[in-house]
Specification:
Order of helices and strands: HHHHEEEEEEEEEEEEEEEHHH
CATH architecture of the largest domain: 3 Solenoid
CATH topology of the largest domain: UDP N-Acetylglucosamine Acyltransferase, domain 1
CATH superfamily of the largest domain: Hexapeptide repeat proteins
Strand order of the largest sheet: 3-6-9-12-14-15
Strand content: 15-25%
Largest sheet: 6 strands, mixed
Oligomer: single chain
Radius of gyration: 25 Å
CATH class of the largest domain: Mainly Beta
Number of strands: 15
């Protein structure tokens, strides 16, 4: 286990990784795991300045900011990594996958537990934000660009701003290994389709009450252009 398992996990999940040596030498997602182990060790021994120094050096080298206090499980796959932020009280379970641009952050100046907790086998899509002391259950998939402000139960898929649960049953696959983010519902488009269908039903109902061409039919009303009456006179 340990860092060797982390490197093998990255090799197994990333089709662009040709071997473990390439991961160890070239992957910032692996480098930041190494430096975080050091920073977290210093943090737990109250060497807070040194811990932050290590984490900030790692941030400048990798573009990934992980607070030394964050707790990270085994086999975390950080893909690309640029722009990732994990807050101080963040907790991440085993075998999770997190894409670039993800924030696991707080929402205010509260002390104590104020950052998210992720279960095992969780996938967080690119650019997603998980804010506050929310709990993300095992086998959860969060779509790219989503904003999570509430707890998400295990085996669910959530997308949107704010995120909504759109699917339950991820237990049939492991989102952290599957990595598929293309088959997720488009919530804004669904809302537009529902609104269009509702307007169509209203139009049909109104056509029955006011036949086309009648003066009372509001659907046939065309507002007069400014000054049109004056020209007709």
């Amino acid at each position: 286990m340990g860092l060797w398992a982390d490197a093998k996990n990255i090799r197994d999940k990333d089709p662009a990784a040709r071997n473990v040596a390439e991961v160890i030498l070239l992957y910032p997602g692996f480098h930041v795991l190494v430096t975080h182990r050091i920073a977290h060790w210093l943090y737990n021994r109250r060497l807070l300045f040194l811990a932050r120094l290590v984490s900030q050096l790692a941030r400048h080298l990798t573009g990934i900011e992980i607070h030394p206090g964050a707790k990270i499980g085994q086999r975390l796959f950080i893909d690309h990594g640029m722009g990732i932020v994990f807050g101080e009280t963040t907790e991440i379970g085993d075998n999770c996958t997190i894409y670039h641009g993800v924030t696991l952050g707080g929402t205010g100046k509260d002390v104590g537990k104020r950052h998210p907790t992720l279960g095992d086998n969780v996938l967080i899509g690119a650019g997603a934000k998980v804010l506050g002391p929310v709990f993300i259950g095992d086998n959860v998939r969060v779509g790219a660009g989503s904003v999570v402000l509430q707890n998400i139960p295990a085996n669910a898929t959530a997308v949107g701003v704010p995120a909504e649960i759109v699917r339950v049953g991820n237990i049939r696959c492991c989102p952290a290994d599957d990595l598929d983010q293309q088959a997720l519902p488009d919530l804004p488009q669904q809302r537009l389709n529902e609104l269009e269908a509702r307007l169509s039903r209203i139009e049909v109902a109104m056509q029955g009450e006011y036949p086309p061409g009648t003066a009372q039919n509001p659907l046939d009303f065309v507002p007069e252009k400014h000054g049109e009456k004056a020209k007709q006179k």
